[in-house]
Amino acid sequence: MKIVIFASGSGSNAENIVNHFIGTSIQISAIFCNVEGAGVIQRAERLGIPLELFNKEEWTTGDRIDLILSSYQPDLIVLAGFLWKFPLRLLSKFPHVLNVHPALLPKFGGKGMYGMNVHQAVVDAKEIETGITIHWVNEHYDEGAIIFQATCKIDPNDTPMDVAQKIHQLEGEHFPRIVEEVLKDIEPKS
């Protein structure tokens, strides 16, 4: 089984997934990144994972990206902090795309709801709990079928940074395990 990871930021979730599958029959074929200088680039190099860097125009037209992604023939694509909407043209070729969202969907999802934007919105709404949602990706932001959710309490004096730390802990604890569980239900391409 082959996984391709898409990431836009530091890459901690990507690294957790790579480390989870070391010594197994699951191969992390590549990491795709859309942000020059993102931390995930150095992580990919250190972990010995091929890195594919691309820009907005390449993403929009699809010519180069579609070809490169097709060459890896992934059984599963994992969005680990990837901030651009996954296009329908790719979903039709690669229907198994998984995302982790830093809130309990359907709350605090949609365009622009990522990272600290989500944590700030959760604090501003005076929520008493939040969590992560791992879901299938469809043509709409954060509306794909939910696979798994985990929750954590929010204290009245928690800042968005406090919430971010709690969410990061949940992602580290659950995301690699859920990726592994999802793979059991996917037919390998080769």
Question: What labels describe this entry?
Answer:
globular; 7-stranded mixed β-sheet; single chain; alpha/beta; 190 residues; Rossmann fold; 39% helix; 7 helices; 7 strands
Give the total of domains: 1
What do we call the CATH homologous superfamily? Formyl transferase, N-terminal domain
**Main pleated-sheet profile:** 7 strands, mixed
Q: Spatial order of the strands in the main sheet?
A: 3-2-1-4-5-6-7
Query: Judging by the overall fold, what is the CATH architecture?
Result: 3-Layer(aba) Sandwich
Q: Name the assembly state.
A: single chain
- Summarize the helix and strand pattern as letters: EHEHEHHEHEHEEH
Hey, roughly how much beta strand do the residues contain?
Answer: 15-25%
Q: Which range best describes the helical content: under 10%, 10-25%, 25-40%, 40-55%, 55-70% or over 70%?
A: 25-40%
What best-fitting shape do the alpha-carbon axes yield?
globular
Report the total helices. Answer: 7
Describe this entry's structure for a reader:
The chain has 190 residues and is an alpha/beta fold. The chain has a single domain, classed as Formyl transferase, N-terminal domain (Rossmann fold), CATH 3.40.50.170. The protein is built from seven helices and seven strands; from the N terminus they run βαβαβααβαβαββα. A seven-stranded mixed β-sheet has the order 3-2-1-4-5-6-7, sandwiched between helices. The longest helix has 24 residues, at 160-183. The N and C termini lie close together (8 Å). 34% of the residues are buried. The model has no long low-confidence stretch (mean pLDDT 96).
